[in-house]
Amino acid sequence: MGRDASREMKETIVEVTEESRLWKQLWPVIEQLEQQPYIEVQAGHFRSSHMFAALVEGRPVGFLRFVVQRLGEDEGRPPIVFRDKVLYEAKIIAFGVLPEERNRGIGRSLQQEAMRRAESLACCQVRSRSDYESVANYHLKISLGFGIQPSLEDDSVYFVKALPAAVGPEST
Prior knowledge:
The chain is α+β, with helices and mostly antiparallel strands. It is built from 6 helices and 9 strands.
């Protein structure tokens, strides 16, 4: 099969846990992309953690991990309340696609699945942070409608995507 035929293969996005057989298969991809510290990080304010794998022909080629937390909690801020509800966000803390699999929509599919899952978990937004050098990542985020805020701390950028259905329309 030629390269053109393989480029048309569709990826599958699945949620994985450390107990799943797929976790061990995914780990070499995580290591190759030097994302181990972000996969392993734990914090007391994480309400839940969600890991997705992108598979092509059953083979892991990418991943995305997000955690659910109260909005601003990781910055030591008090809860933000809207309509008597504390707001939660999905914070993407690890994301990558193998270099040879990039520019095929795999990263986009991972981001879109994370947004769907975050909305199902009643998150009001998805947020991530990336270095300025991660040009492909910020092009992807911009194309998905994320807002952009350069960091005042270092050479990184915050990306935020509102999930309005999680907050709901104002009742009349």
